[in-house]
Sequence to fold (308 residues):
Amino acid sequence: MTTTPTTPTTPIAQNSQNAQNTRTATSSAPMVPARYRVVANHRDTADTHTLRLAPLDQPIPRFRAGQFTMVYVFGVGEIPLSVSGSPLVGDDTLVHTVRAVGAVSAALCQAGPGSIVGVRGPFGTGWDVEDSLGRNLLFVAGGIGLAPLRSALLEALGTRDRFGFITVLAGAKVPAEHLYRDEEESWLAHGAVVLRTVDRLEPDPCTLQVPAWDGSVGLVTDLLAGLRARPEHTTAFVCGPEVTMTHTGSALLELGIPAHRIEVCLERNMRCGLGICGHCQLGPDFVCLDGPVTTFDHAEPLLAICEL
Fold:
């Protein structure tokens, strides 16, 4: 009697197959970065910059809103960055917003026009904008979390007539840390409602002057109290610190938005983008393959696992 060998269904075996699928979907050499030139570097805040990159080699495949790439600074290292540009743009340029929190991100923030970096990807899952046609869209961001949401927001605004109300709720620690203030007028012109809040208003230590601020003061979840939305016809996209996503997801559930219509972006430590190194394993998932975007009903028990 003979038996047909079967593929093991352990998480590691499933992960290996997912990694192989990712390799096929990205390029024939997924660990080899394509060279991109920095064509613009815009300073958003004191420690955050938005880079526009143009390919010097064969460009990486087109990305979906919410996917990420691995960006390599030659001689320094490589980090994952969500693509923050619009997927509707017809050229092969990439836009990334990066905050200087380590050696690689600091080097990227300092990279002027003409600098060369390496890019691999795109990797991971994306925001389900296409699956929300005809629905109201709610974007909730905490701090730098607005960067991964920007691609989905620009996609929605670029096809504005396909959606209902579009609302953006953005929180930051202090006014100076809010991203994309110079784009807000354009978002409003396309019919979005934009509400911003800060955790606190404190005097400048040098001038002792309280910064001018026309938004709210409090947590971003506080903005949900005055939200006019039909929960059964709303899709929510949430990104920020894990504690923010956890509390925001719970608050949205209380409003009546179903958990499968609440999408969050996980950002645990990713190093390869292919599920090989294992650094981003979160419970049974590998964030670089099964995420970074997932639904709140799937993510809520994973977010309860403390990051080491």
In short: Confidence is low (pLDDT under 50) at residues 1-26. Residues 11-26 form the longest helix (16 residues).
